[in-house]
Specification:
Shape: elongated
Number of helices: 10
Length: about 200
């Protein structure tokens, strides 16, 4: 690990935590950013640590600049813990925050509906579809088109939307010439792809 990666730890134990806080406590600037980046990095593998770091961020922050990313880390951590109710609630807070600060945007406009669709949270279906419709102009990468169409397909049991999602999953090159692997649909979406194939039949 380079000296610049002390706030991007992918593993976490007492020694790593001690080193992280020794650096964090000496940081003269960007302390809030370091906390949030570390929380985001650990959201999937150490969600409880992420939640603790995010609580610390909100208790000590001097500005709201990192709030969106902090909430995103929190939503991801709740998802990793299979606490989908809290994950949904946090995603909706992110979407509300984006309305206040339209220049700062996340992927919550896709992550929230996709979570609702894949986990069959039917009391959120109408809201999820509304979010998708209002943000269709933000789609750029194949993964974004995939999640947009897949969410609509799963919510509405729509074969046409399922076919569009599957077409997006087949794309093997990004729209960006020098970053052709960016934004593609990975193997982690195989379960959803199987569901979409059933809808298409």
């Amino acid at each position: 690990m380079s000296s610049e990666d002390w706030y991007r730890n992918k593993v976490w134990d007492s020694a790593v935590e001690e080193h992280f806080y020794s650096k964090l406590n000496r940081a003269r600037t960007q302390r809030e950013q370091y906390l949030v980046i570390q929380a985001l990095t650990l959201a999937e593998s150490h969600p409880l640590v992420t939640l603790r770091l995010i609580n610390e961020y909100f208790e000590s922050r001097k500005s709201e600049f990192e709030d969106l990313r902090a909430l995103l880390a929190k939503a991801n951590a709740f998802f990793a813990l299979a606490d989908f109710e809290k994950s949904v609630a946090t995603y909706k807070k992110i979407l509300d925050k984006e309305k206040e600060f339209p220049n700062y945007q996340t992927g919550a406009y896709l992550d929230y509906p996709y979570l609702v669709a894949t986990q069959r949270i039917d009391n959120e279906f109408a809201c999820a579809l509304d979010v998708l419709e209002k943000n269709v102009d933000r789609l750029t990468f194949p993964i974004q088109y995939f999640k947009w169409h897949a969410s609509r397909a799963l919510i509405n049991n729509d074969g046409v939307e399922a076919k569009k999602a599957l077409d997006a999953a087949k794309i093997k090159k990004s729209v960006f010439w020098f970053h052709q692997n960016v934004g593609l649909v990975g193997k982690e979406y195989n379960k959803t792809i199987k569901q979409l194939c059933k809808i298409c039949v």
